[in-house]
Write a structure and sequence with these properties.
- By secondary structure, the chain is mainly alpha-helical.
- The chain has nine helices and no strands.
- It is found in: Cytoplasmic vesicle, Clathrin-coated vesicle membrane; Endoplasmic reticulum membrane; Membrane.
- It comes from Cyprinodon variegatus.
Length: 231
């Protein structure tokens, strides 16, 4: 009976989504007008093809990440814009679990990559985490795993974060002070050199001055000029 309620809830949620006014339903409506096939049948076919592609297709990782990101991101924006705070808590819980899962996947991806149908089961896991029911995956994982660990180590993590932030601020202040001191020292060294260079301009030697200052040696009288004196 519980499993039947789950499928009924998912079915109602899907029908509600197909009856809403959004980009997906507009696109499905255009296809329905051109082909005559109902939006519900088109959606079921698209979901089936997506599942087959996750199993056998190329680029299944990208498609799986889009499924786990686009739909929650859309409803997270709607939750932010709505006055109700319950949906905010719901989607914040999902993103916390999604972040923890992504962190664990980052370190274990080299092993999980070889697991058969990994991205298909990952997509099912993400769909379970965002499922429109009270005991969806994100609520269970957060309450059973994330929340107890967080409450147990909250004080330690807060002290660590405060210490790291204080050290980062001190390092930034010291670095800024050293840079400013270095710039001031360079400025004090460059300024006197510029003043000395301006006070002693270089003059080029003048060719006319050398010619005018040069002494001309007196020329000796020729032999014809000496004859009248000898006679």
């Amino acid at each position: 009976m519980g499993l039947l309620n789950v499928f009924t809830s998912i079915k109602d949620r899907a029908e509600k989504f197909l009856n809403e006014k959004n980009v997906v339903t507009d696109f499905l409506g255009k296809i329905e007008e051109k082909t005559g096939i109902k939006k519900k049948v088109i959606a079921i076919g698209a979901v089936s093809l997506t599942g087959l592609y996750l199993v056998y297709g190329y680029g299944a990782a990208l498609l799986c990440n889009l499924i786990g990101f686009v739909y929650p991101a859309y409803y997270s924006v709607k939750a932010i814009e709505s006055p109700c705070k319950e949906d905010d808590t719901k989607w914040l819980t999902y993103w916390v679990v999604y972040g923890v899962f992504s962190l664990g996947e980052f370190f274990s991806d080299i092993f999980l990559y070889w697991f058969p149908f990994y991205y298909f089961f990952k997509c099912l896991f993400l769909l379970w985490c965002m499922a429109p029911m009270s005991w969806n995956g994100s609520q269970i994982i957060y309450n059973k795993v994330v929340r107890p660990i967080f409450l147990r180590h909250e004080a330690t993590v807060d002290n660590m974060v405060s210490d790291l932030s204080g050290k980062a601020m001190s390092a930034a202040e010291n670095l800024t002070r050293e840079v400013l001191c270095t710039l001031m020292k360079n400025k004090t060294l460059v300024t006197p050199m510029q003043q000395v260079a301006q006070a002693e301009p270089k003059s080029l030697p003048s060719s006319t001055g050398q010619t005018s200052n040069a002494k001309v040696a007196p020329s000796e009288p020729s032999e014809e000029e000496r004859r009248p004196f000898l006679g």
